[in-house]
Design goal:
There is one protein chain. This protein has 122 residues and is an alpha+beta fold. A four-stranded mixed β-sheet has the order 2-1-3-4, with helices on both faces. Helix 2 packs across helix 6.
Length: 122
């Protein structure tokens, strides 16, 4: 099952859900406000895509926490991300061991086709 991780009031999440629904691709939405990721889940995502990809450094939470001024280590950044999961770049798509971060329709198509979640003719 494809998992979409994010927060429901995010425009990128709305766009992602719409894109998936239009193509009749089944998915489960994980709302990190209601069901925060565990530290192990975050570490797994970090391992697969890297903190630089996973952290939304252009978002409000990042700016409000003044993280740029802190210059945190990777461990400190992971802890900040754990405590402030709205700082995760959205969407995060997870299928089995594969992860795709950010809204990009071309990347979505490639990702879905590679995992046979979408027909080639769509």
């Amino acid at each position: 099952m494809l998992h979409v991780i994010g927060i429901p009031n995010c425009n990128k999440i709305r766009d992602t859900k719409k894109w998936l629904n239009e193509r009749e691709i089944e998915f489960e939405f994980i709302d990190v406000k209601k069901e925060p990721l565990t530290m192990d889940e975050l570490k797994d995502l970090e391992f697969k895509v890297g903190l630089d990809v996973l952290v939304n450094s252009r978002g409000t939470t990042y700016r409000n926490l003044k993280i740029k001024d802190m210059n945190p280590s990777d461990e400190e950044m992971l802890q900040l991300l754990f405590e402030n999961q709205s700082m995760i770049k959205r969407p995060v798509l997870v299928f089995e061991e594969s992860v795709l971060v950010g809204f990009d329709e071309e990347a979505f198509e490639t990702f879905m086709k590679e995992h046979e979640l979408m027909e080639d003719d769509q």
